[in-house]
Amino acid sequence: MKRVEQGQYCVMPVDSKVLSRLLLPCLAVAALLLVPIPAQAIELFGLKLFEPEAAEEEVVVDPVSYAVSLETGNLDEDLTDALTQASVLVKDQEKPVSGSLGLLVKVRDDRERLVAALYESARYSGTVDITVAGRPFDDIPPDAEFSRGVPIPVVIRIEPGSVYRFGKVELTGDVAGLDPLDFGLQTGSNANSGAIIGAEDAMVEELKKSGHPLARISDREIVADHSSRTLDIVLELAAGPVAPFGATSVSGTEDMDPGFVAEYADIEAGRTYDPEEVKRARDRLIGLEVFDSVSTQPVENLDPDGSYPVAFKVKERKKRYLGIGATLSSTDGAGIEGYWGHRNLFGRAEKLRVEAAVGRIGEASVGQLDYNAAILFEKPGAFGPLTKFTSNLRASFEHPDAYDRSSVSGGVGVVYELTRRQTVSVGLELDWSRVTDSFGTAKHLIASVPIEYVVDMRDNKLNPSKGYRLLARIEPAHDIQSSASFVSISGAASAYLAVDRAKKVILAGRVAGGMIVGAGLTSIPAHRRFYSGGGGSVRGYSFQGVGPKDANGDPTGGRSFGEASLELRIQITEQIGLVPFIDVGTVSTGSTLNSSSVRVGAGLGVRYLTPVGPLRIDAGIPLNRRPGENTFGVYAGIGQSF
Question: Is residue 117 over pLDDT 90?
């Protein structure tokens, strides 16, 4: 194997000594490559670029130290943890406070938080008693002074009381057919405060979905009966008038054109208010990748014409960014890549990105290294708020097992958003290349029209727990150099299902396939054929390792392929997961698949969950490998495998 697939995986051989030395660097590299590095905080070869001003250290006037003790008795572990997490006194006890008054204020606030934590556990008769320097907090005057010699002792004693259940539950006002049972408010069920707040929010949201933007809880009556340990609730709802959308306004812009931002939000004035429309608009603005935050400003009154104005507040990100990373493989040598980008060239979120990569360092001579470079440009809203114009110019000089290629290509395209979850794109590409493969050396000048349709119903792109994604692609192409014409047709589908309610066990599956019609195998340039094998397809095999090979054992590629994968993603702890998997794939020289060439790989993966997605290590074994092939492969990257 001669290549790290798409720069996303580090592929290692079976040598266990090498394996143990390379796993951690590969994992770190994968994270570095795929996580954007903010330009204002990067250090490159010792040179700090776009360095922000150093933050001033917080100065505490008249510092007073304290030592806190939290006494919870024989509470269960979950409630003890919840109370400990709620206590800022416990969390900040290494930090001094400002004066004796500062300590008293912190104690008062902490007692309120701890009482709220008891309510969240449906314990409404619990008590929180706090003493400071041996004196009950309620007996200490605001102007009290404490000795500064040693940390002031603070003791928190909690008696949790009993768990309460819902008694009477009643809705009044503009109930609009709402049923408390549909929102988890059921007589006899656990009466924790979180359930009440969540139900109130959900009821208001239901009213808003009916076109009532000013819907609210106008009154609430909550009575705890300590003798029966029940909580009676009466909620009054005020729907307010049905209203259409009014004008969209934007504040907080610096370099962005606020008029463009409002237009790109694509909220149609006059259409009946829908909170989902506002959420969709916010997601669209975040998708521009030029804002650190996008929020909607609260509106308490309708405009004089009876419409509901939508006000967005935004905060822009740094316009420029820079990133650098590396790959490492014991069979392919090292690789280094970097990129520079601009998020907002002309004030309408136009993006420019320049990237370059060098691979096989240490594995090949300078002339045989892999070189890739690209310039990418993107303009959102080019032909209306639902469109995006894209263009690219690429140059490559690479040497995977299947071929050697030198190429220059360029293309333009338009992406159209059919719905929030559906997009269609069409492009025009021109690709000049010189390719040497099993069938000789040839020059190609290929004009193609790629057309792609995507439906993405996943709940999370990096770590989905439910939903599905479908992709269909067709690309008619004509080789001007050889006069050969062919059409590449491919598709992929993935689906995700949570096995348990807590979403700790996810069943994930993927199928993909394609075929090329209109020309024979030798008339199709090697880099346009189908290949399979590696971390992104059939694990356990090397990159391009599945499919037909020539007499020298090098892949020839094919005119059709099929792949399927099945994973069981098991979350063991908050950060660690295990993923047993099985992959199947085949590549055929004809336009129909040949079942005799099917290859199967199976193995186990480890996931380390981070806020930007899971870090991934997969170890796969080829179950029906051919002579001379690796006995297993290890792959590292970020995000799930599909």
Answer: yes
Q: What percent of the chain has pLDDT over 70?
A: 90
Nearest-angstrom CA–CA distance, 396 and 171? 67
Backbone angles phi, psi at 40, to 5 degrees: -80, 0
Give 35's pLDDT tier (boundaries 50, 70, 90). very low
Residues 376 and 284 in one domain: no
pLDDT tens for 402-422 read 899 999 999 999 999 998 899
Which DSSP state fits 348? S
Domain boundary among 111, 133, 159: 159
Give 21's contacts (C-beta < 8 A, 6+ positions apart): none
**Assigned domain for 526 exists:** yes
Query: Distance between alpha carbon 565 and the CA centroid of its chain, in Å?
Result: 21
Instruction: Judge contact between 339 and 352, C-beta under 8 A.
Output: no
Give per-residue burial for 123-132: e unless 16+ CB within 10 Å, then b.
Answer: bbebebebbb
What's the pTM value of the predicted model, to 2 decimals?
0.74
Helices 193-209 and 275-287: crossing angle in degrees, nearest 10, is: 100
Query: Is residue 32 scored above 70 in pLDDT?
Result: no
Residue 532 and residue 519 in one domain: yes
The CA distance from 373 to 394, in Å, is: 6
**Domain around 174:** 165-238
pLDDT digits (tens, 9 = 90+) for 455-496: 999 998 888 999 999 999 999 999 999 999 999 999 999 999
Say if residue 520 is in the same domain as residue 615: yes
| Domain containing residue 115: CATH number | 3.10.20.310
492 and 354 in a single domain? The answer is yes
Listed in sequence order, the residues at least 6 apart from 448 whose beta carbon sits closer than 8 Å to its beta carbon are: 428, 429, 431, 475, 476, 477, 478
Would the pLDDT of 56 be above 60?
A: no
Task: Return d(Cα 195, Cα 184) in angstroms, integer.
Answer: 7
The answer on 613 and 480 residing in a single domain is: yes
Side-chain half-sphere CA neighbours of 582 within 13 A: 5
As a whole number of angstroms, the distance between CA 212 and CA 551 comes to 72
- Residue 424: inside a domain: yes
User: Distance (Å, rounded) from C-alpha 57 to C-alpha 51?
Assistant: 17
Q: Are residues 373 and 462 in the same domain?
A: yes
| Per-residue model confidence (pLDDT) at position 249 | 95
Residue 187 has pLDDT above 70, yes or no: yes
Going by the DSSP 8-state scheme, the letter that residue 304 receives in this structure is: T
Last-in-domain residue among 101, 131, 159: 159
Please write the tens of the pLDDT for every residue from 417-454.
Answer: 998 899 999 999 999 999 999 899 999 999 999 999 99
Question: CA 272, CA 220: separation in Å to the nearest integer?
Answer: 29
- Where would I find the beta strands (DSSP E) of 146-243? 152-159, 165-173, 216-225, 230-238
User: Does one domain contain both 134 and 207?
Assistant: no
Domain membership of residue 51 (yes or no) is no
- CA angle, 403 as apex, 399 and 407 as ends, to 5°? 70
* Number of domains present in the structure of the chain: 4
> Within this chain, do residues 352 and 440 fall inside the same structural domain, yes or no?
yes
The C-alpha angle 411, 412, 415, rounded to 5 degrees, equals 130
pLDDT beyond 60 at 543: yes
Is residue 471 one of the residues assigned to a domain? yes
353-366 tens-digit pLDDT: 999 999 878 777 78
Q: Which pLDDT score is estimated for 196?
A: 95
